[in-house]
Structure formats: structure tokens, C-alpha cells
Amino acid sequence: MAYKIDFIDGTAIHWSLSDDGAIPTRDESYTPTIYVSAHSASLAEAGSHLRDHPRIESVRRVRERIGFRHNPTEVLRVDVTDLESVMAVANEVSGWGAPGAYRLYNVDFSREYRYCLEERIDPTPDQDLSVLRLAAEEAELVAPPVTELQFGGETLTGDPDEVLTALRDQFRKEDPDVLQLSSSDVIPRLFEQAEQYDVEGFQLGRLPGYQQLAGESTYESYGQVGHSPARYNVPGRAIIDESNTFFWNQTNLDGCLDLVSRSHKPLQELAWSSIGNILTAIQIREARSRGVLVPWHSWRHEQFKTMRQLHDADRGGFTFAPDVGFHEDVHELDFSSLFPNIIVTRNVSPEKIRCECHADREDVPGLGYSICDERGYLPDVLEPLIQDRDEIKAELRETDDAERRAALEGQSNAIKWILVSCFGYQGFSNAKFGRIECHEAINAFAREILLDSKAVFEANGWHVVHGIVDSIWVTPVEGETQTPLDELAAQISEEVGIRLEYEAAYDWLALVPRRDSDAGALTKYFGKIAGEDAYKYRGIECRQRSTPPFIKDAQQELIRVLDEERSPEQVCECLRSMVDRLERGAVDRDRLVVTNRVSKSVDEYTQYTQNVAALERAESMGLSRSAGQGVSYVVVDDEKQSRERVALASENPTTYDPAFYRTQLLRAAESVLSPLGWRRRQIEAEVSSYTEQSLDSFESR
């Protein structure tokens, strides 16, 4: 079974694994296919033009569904000569006639996925894949030659030609199926070096040479700026670029291969794809199984709404105002995969919502939308994912085999991310099969479910201290009789049709206020898990990517002291010792590294922040960063307004700015103590009142 697809000189080559190694199969006859429908235009006229087109192999009329709400109709099937011609032909046809006169389908598929979809190939490998990691330091990649490489478990060092000769020999010996790279830039750099130093027979693939599939780019998604590095390909091996892979980093090989089997995206493409991209691929497979074509551009109009409907629909999931403070004996309950289960149990699907056949019904609470009784395609896509994840989680609870647990956890996490995205996808303007009314209906059902659940808990002796969309935290009301939570969870599950699970018990839970007011921060809390020597942290500094390791560890230690002592004064005493360490220069510099993702290029910033100083410093060393990339540095003198304000982590700085990190430490301490009513000014006063203590006294605690 093919696990890797290459296109070399216009020919498709798919690689299968056998006991004797990888076997390539050349497919000289493959031609990609697109479809054209006519609207206020002539299908026959379009066909006559296309038959004489130099980039088109063949044209014929076929009957296909151009949408889930459509019956089969005549369209043109257009077989294009090669992959490079698909977009050229599509752009040409879309410009004919008035806007929308001709609509195109199955156009913008990624190339390996297109091949598997059209040739009906399942790219899930039927044998175990061998994976080897190839890594090089960034400084050597930007300022060659490369004189040190990590390959598998070995370090290859020496002169530039010696390193590549050793790498070439190791490749011939190991012959990995998957090549995991520290950065995709390793590929062109090593090939350039091999040519410069005349290293005979050097190759990273199973055939000579390499290809650049895409250049680097910057993008924006949900208000976040991201950076996509250049992508490269070597024949016969799947490339995993650690700097450009979500699923590999969030799951593991087993998780990725589970999604390969569901989406039919080969491993290499799946590794660089986004969550939405994979969900789309799964939906496309379902659409094609039903004879539905995939629109190139989304042209779904939003159906008419009254002003009242617009007001009621333009709301998200329900979130209770957190009851700020330190709460003891708290219990968390979560609805299992709430949004996907709403889609499945309520039949929320783009082609079924606000259907004409039940226009007189009001199925969606508060919005008055109808939902057709006929089963929709989206529930059919998601229900197997929900059921499979439930089965995986059940097996996880039973197995003690470490290897099996790792595989199951990877699969569970992979499915989780797909389920998480299915709701937001419905509101995405460029979604192939999304519909804003689905997004609105899911939110409406979720709001009703959470409010009804709150009422049940409060009627049975429980106080709701917080609730976020699909999770709810309760504590017993003093002086009232409590109905057992397992009984209430079973009752609510039956009424809602979605399982409410008992998630965790906490000895205590601290709900953090906003920094600038007494109102609760919706997603900031921490607590001690009952019966375990463990804590849960959400939203506070130790969970934030940019927080230096020293600050993360310090905040977790302060929480531990709070748990043991239940005294803000004792927490401040511990904090004082941490401040002492900082001010005496006793903290390792690598524990103070700040890592931030930059949102602009260096010349676009109007204020001289630490990030700007770090970007300037990186640029001066040939380590320039684009918007969406990360930069790591230690603040060495925050008073300066030059690149000397910081030192890059790769420079191994010998100094740091104690005042800057003291501010960061106090900010983290405020998150810990603010649920008890202690704010920054009171914490500073308490810390300053202590006589300085030695590091030894702190470590002896």
C-alpha cells in the first residue's frame, strides 16, 4: 500500500513498503481532474472551448451533485494534462462570462491528496515505518559550512566533506522511511554543500535530488500571525519538519497515521497540514462518497434573518462569571465532546439546517431555525470519530502496557483536535462545506444545555462557581442536602442526550480576577487535585509559552506553598527568597529565556520593545526572523533602547537584568494571591518587609 507519493518530471511515483524495502511504482497515465458547471451560461460552449485547449487531455459530460442540497446534474469533467496546469485552467474558465457564470469544483486540492483521492488509494502504510531524525544548528545553516549533524542517535562532526560523506553512508545503512528534520532548510543547505565540496553520490532520498514544494510565507489565523517555512521533498521518504508540523508535535506517529487512514492525506502532507485542512479532507472524502463535488470558492449565501434573529444568533457559547476566590471541595464535570455531539444528536449539518421542508418548525432554541429530519452528512463524518475516541479512552483506562498506551494517547489526541475544530469550521468564511447558521445553532444548543445543567445542580444543593461552554465547577452549599453528583450527571446526560462526565475533584480551586478589576478572568484558575500530589493550572503564567522557565517554576512553587500553608504571608516569604536569588545573580541564564512569536517584521514596529531589540540582534547575526516566527532571548539591560537591551539565547549570555525579571516574578505571584484579595502593591509591601534571607534558608524549606 502506497505511503508516499512523489511527482518527478510530471510522473507520479508512489512508494510501497515490503519486507525487501521500499518499492516505487511509476504512473505515467495519471491526469488530474476538475469539474465545471454552467449558471446563466452554456455548458456546450464551454465544452467546445475546452476540447481544443492545449492543457486539457479530455472533456466529457457527466452527472454529479454540485452540492449536498442538489440532485445530480450535467457538468463537464475536465482531465488536465498535469498538476501544474490545474490552476491555470481553472483561473481561465472562471473568468469567462459574467461572475459566477461558470463554477469550478475539485480545484484546490493538495497534490498528494488529489492523487490518492482520484486514484482511490489509501496511503496508510501496512508495515511499521522507520523514523530517523536529522538536525543541525541554525547558526550553521545560515552561516555554512555545516560541520556537525545529529542523525538518529549519532553526532557526525568533522570537515564539511567528511560530515556529508558520513551522512551519506549512514543513509545507505539505515534507509529510513520517515525523515524528521529540525528544519526543512537542512535539505537545500546540505545539497549545496555536497556540490561545493564534490561529495560523490550524496542524496537524502531514495532517488537523487530534491524539490522545493513551497516557499516560506506569513499568514494570519484567528488574529494570530503565523509563519510557514519553505517545504521540500526528497523522493521515497516522508519529510517531517519539526518547525512546521502541528500534529506530529501534538500527538505522535500513531496519532498521525490514524488521521492518514481517515483523511487519506499521505503522512508528509498530513504533517504540515492544519487541523481544518485535515477535517476538510475527511469531509471531502464523505462528499465524494455521496457523489458531491467540492466547490473551489464558497458561494453560499446567508439566509435572511430578522433583526431579532441577528441579535440572538450573534453570540458564542455560554460562560458564567467566575466566582473569584479560593474555594474548597470543588468538583469539575465536563460534557463529552459537547459541540461534536450537539452536531450528531441534533443533526446540525449545512444542508439540513433551515430546510424548506420544515420551515414552519423552530428546532433551534432561541433562534427559530428548523433542522430537517433526514440525516445530514456532517453527523456521519463526526459520529465515527466520537465513537472511536470513546473506545480508545476506554481501552486507555484498562491497559498497563506503556507502548500501547503511547499509541492510544497519540490516536486520542489526534481525534480530539479534529473534534475541537469541527465547530469553528462551520463559521469559517472559506470553509468548503461550512455554514454560519450551523455555527449559530451549535452555540444556541450549548447555551441551553449549560443553563439547564446549572439549574439542576442548584436545585440539588450545589453552588456553581464557574462554567465555560462545556465544563462546570460546583461546590456543596453549606446547610443543604446534596444529591450525589453521579446521580445528577446521569440525570443530565439522559435529558440532554450527551454524556456529562465527572472530570475531577479538587481539594481547592482558586479563580483568578482580572488584573485591572475585581471581575473574574474567564480562563484563569488553578487548584489542587484531590487525592493526588498534583495541581491543575489554566491561563496563568506557568501555562504561557513566553514565560521563562524560572518564572514558571517559581509560580508553581508559590502555589505549592499556598496549598501547604494557606497563608499569603508564607507565600510572600517564599517569594522573598526567589527575589533574593534574582538580585544576587544566582539564577542560571538559560532559565530566564523569553520566547515570543513576533507579529511583524522588525521595521514595522513603532515602539522599541524587547522583541524589536531581539529581532535587530538576530538580523545582525544573519538569523533574521519573519512575522509569525519565534525569537528567544534573555533581557540583559531593559533600560537601554538598542539591541544591547537583550542577548539571544544562542549567544549564551552571562548577565541578566534583575529588575526586569523581578517584575515578571511579582506578576506571577499576583496571579497566585489575587484570589485571596492580595494585589501587587500589598505583595510588594509584604516582600519588602522581610529581612533578606539566604538561598540556603529557602532551599531548606
UniProtKB/TrEMBL annotation:
According to the UniProt entry, where is the signal peptide? none
Q: Which family does it belong to?
A: Belongs to the DNA polymerase type-B family.
- Recorded protein name is DNA-directed DNA polymerase
Per the record's keyword annotation, is Nucleotidyltransferase included, yes or no?
yes
The source organism is Halogeometricum salsisoli
A Pfam family found in this protein is DNA_pol_B
Determine if GTP-binding is one of this entry's keywords: no
Task: For this UniProt record, give its keywords in alphabetical order, as a comma-separated list.
Answer: DNA-binding, DNA-directed DNA polymerase, Nucleotidyltransferase, Transferase
Q: Which GO terms describe its molecular function?
A: DNA-directed DNA polymerase activity
Ranges where the DNA-directed DNA polymerase family B multifunctional domain occurs: 285-673
Q: What is its EC number?
A: 2.7.7.7
Annotated catalysed reactions: DNA(n) + a 2'-deoxyribonucleoside 5'-triphosphate = DNA(n+1) + diphosphate
Domain of life of the native organism: Archaea
Taxonomic lineage is: Archaea, Methanobacteriati, Methanobacteriota, Stenosarchaea group, Halobacteria
Q: Kindly give the CDD domains that the UniProt entry links to this protein.
A: POLBc_B2
The record's PANTHER family line, in alphabetical order, gives: DNA POLYMERASE CATALYTIC SUBUNIT (PTHR10322), DNA POLYMERASE DELTA CATALYTIC SUBUNIT (PTHR10322:SF23)
InterPro entries xref list: DNA-dir_DNA_pol_B (IPR006172), DNA-dir_DNA_pol_B_multi_dom (IPR006134), DNA/RNA_pol_sf (IPR043502), DNA_pol_B_thumb (IPR042087), DNA_pol_palm_dom_sf (IPR023211), DNA_pol_type-B (IPR050240)
